[in-house]
Structure formats: structure tokens, C-alpha cells
Amino acid sequence: MVIIKASAESEAGGMPGPSEVELRPILEIDDFGDAMTPELVEQETRLREQAAQR
Fold it and tell me: pTM for the whole thing?
């Protein structure tokens, strides 16, 4: 999970008010094939569930 925090003033041109940026994953667990061990799949699932609760 990546958490990004920046003020609109720090961006070129800025934003005229509050704004929202959506970050989307570009890879899924299945994209890693055999490299994703059952332990890593469990860890990833747990982290996604924790992030969804926030």
C-alpha cells in the first residue's frame, strides 16, 4: 500500500480547492504466478482487508 500526502499548493498550478486522487493497483496477485507463495497471498489478503477498514 502506498500513502501519498501533498498539498495542492505544492503542485504546479495548484488546485482551486480540496481534491481527491484515486490510486489504482496495476498488478493483481495472479500476475505473480508461482512467486506468490501461499504465505504471501495470505499476507497480501490481510493487508488489503486492513486497508479497506480505514
Answer: 0.47
Which three three-digit cell numbers place residue 48? 488489503
Number of Cβ atoms within 10 Å of the Cβ of 19:
9
DSSP secondary structure code for residue 13 in this structure? T
pLDDT digits (tens, 9 = 90+) for 4-41: 665 545 555 666 777 777 777 788 888 989 999 999 99
**What residue ranges do the domains of the chain occupy?**
8-53
Task: Please count the other Cβ atoms lying within 10 Å of the Cβ belonging to residue 13.
Answer: 6
* Residue 18: burial class (beta carbons within 10 Å; 0-12, 13-18, 19+): exposed
Q: Which of 54, 29, 24 is nearest to 43 (CA)?
A: 29
